[in-house]
Amino acid sequence: MDSLNSLVEGFGTALTPLNLLWAAVGVLLGTAIGVLPGIGPAMAVALLLPVTYGLEPTGAFIMFAGIYYGAMFGGSTTSILLNTPGESAAVVAAIEGNPMAKAGRGAQALAAAAGGHFAGGLIGTVLLVALAPVVAALAVDIGAPDYFAIMVLAFIAVTSVLGSSRVRGLASLLIGLTLGLVGLDGTTGQARLTFGSLQLADGVDVVIVAVGLFAIGEALWVAAHLRRHGADAIPVGRPWLARADLRRVWKPWLRGPLVGFPFGAIPAGGAEIPTFLSYVTEKRLSRHKDEFGRGAIEGVAGPESAASASAAGTLVSMLTLGLPTTAVAAVMLAAFQQYGIQPGPLLFEREPQLVWGLIASLFVGMVLLLALNLPLAPVWAKLLRVPRPYLYAGILFFAAVGAYAVGGEALDLVVLLVIGLIGFGMRRYGLPVLPAVIGVILGPAAEQQLRRALQISDGSLTGLVNTPFSLAVYAVVALLLAWPLIAKVINRRRNLTA
Fold first, then answer.
1. Which keywords does this chain's UniProt record carry (predicted)?
2. CB of 120 within 8 A of CB of 301?
């Protein structure tokens, strides 16, 4: 009841004309920045930090929250329409969203994504209000073996579900894990795969890998086939969801937050794991399994809802523990410290107006985001009418600008081109792209958690399975690995019975 009263007071703060203005500015900026490949919400908030020195803290954080949610939706827009994720959380949306766009259903894919962001953000923020202390306590209790088990589950799931074969999925994952090794070893400080370059000592940024594999690889692949297949523009399609589409998306919209929110609250890779797990779940539960890989709308609705709920979960551990679980949370934590405010258990007592105003602004921002982006869905979809030579030339330009903006180094452009050529080769030989991106994102974190778990257990492998949570996760992993054999046995018995 206290939380509800505090939330009502927070709405009183968030709905003042000035704070409403900051929320609208944040949503607009976030959407616009998210559409540009390579410039995600973390960079947007970081770039705007100096601009907010003169702002009141509440207004500044309301604008940051608007940028966060807006950039997540903007990233999924280019991911769906151009197969070019604006940020890593939008990678999964490209799997089904881009085939939908190519089939003339880009507006429906964007509408499903907008609805998913609204539903996921709404449910996630309600859970933030109700369950923040509980989730924070769970996050404290989860140790290194549990984190490593979650990441192994993500690796096995991503190689099992995507691509035409498990071998190709595993090959793609190994490419990503290899790219994740580039840089200095976090434990020993030894340089790995840097080829003597100091610029590569910090590793290859995930944004460069995602943009290179998706945007550059796709652009090169299209360029290689333009003469053969022509350069006709793709039809836009109807700018609304039909009843049949609504019947297919409402359950994924509601299931997404159940996966996204808990993962957002623990340091297990941000929105990347829950979006992928949501995709796997929808593929397993859907009655339209034959459409997956060719444009299944559930594969857009579920992951986007999970991503939005994950953003709300991220705020749980940041506000209650001062623990940033994503890059955006880390930048926002720096912003709190800029104002002399320390997030943690006492923040709700010391700065109630700021905290509850920020939480209430999330509800306001989601309404603004839905009102802004649903009418714009057919407008964004008209990007597909641009002739493909001009469209992909623009993609290459913005991808290069985004990659250069990450570190300001000319070497980043060379790395981007090399990774783009790898992406082109992966398309040529039928390797799925997503496992490679997952490998780059989670590989270094998995290595760190593995080393930490082994150090705690004095090098004993039993240290990886010494908690009930990790045992439960490995049981799921074993089921995923054994499922093809189990399915074969079941099918044989059915055939014999028939």
1. Membrane, Transmembrane, Transmembrane helix
2. no
Q: Is the dihedral of CA 283, 285, 291, 297 positive or negative?
A: negative
Q: Residue 420: which of 36, 38, 77, 76 has the closest Cα?
A: 38
Task: Identify the three-state secondary structure at position 183.
Answer: strand
CB 83 within 8 A of CB 98: yes
Cβ(248)–Cβ(297) below 8 Å:
yes
Kindly give, in sequence order, each residue whose CB lies less than 8 Å from that of residue 220, ignoring residues fewer than 6 positions away.
Answer: 420, 421, 423, 424
CA pair distance 395, 471, nearest whole angstrom: 45
Amino acid identity for residue 201 in this structure: A
Q: How far apart are CA 397 and CA 211, in angstroms?
A: 12
The number of folded domains in the chain is: 1
pLDDT tens per residue across span 245-280: 888 888 889 888 888 888 777 655 567 778 888 888
Please report, as a single letter, which amino acid is at residue 496: L
Of 414, 413, 443, give the one whose Cα is nearest residue 174: 443
User: What's the one-letter identity of residue 182?
Assistant: V
Residue 478 forms part of a structural domain: no
| Residue partners of 180: CB distance under 8 A and separation at least 6 | 203, 204, 439, 440, 441, 442, 443, 444, 447
Q: What is the mean pLDDT of the chain?
A: 78
Q: Is residue 495 part of a domain?
A: no
Residue 37 carries which DSSP code? T
The predicted-structure confidence for 367-406, as pLDDT tens digits, reads as follows 888 887 777 766 766 665 677 677 677 778 877 877 777 6
Asked if the structure places residue 497 within a domain, the reply is no
Residue 485: inside a domain, yes or no? Answer: no
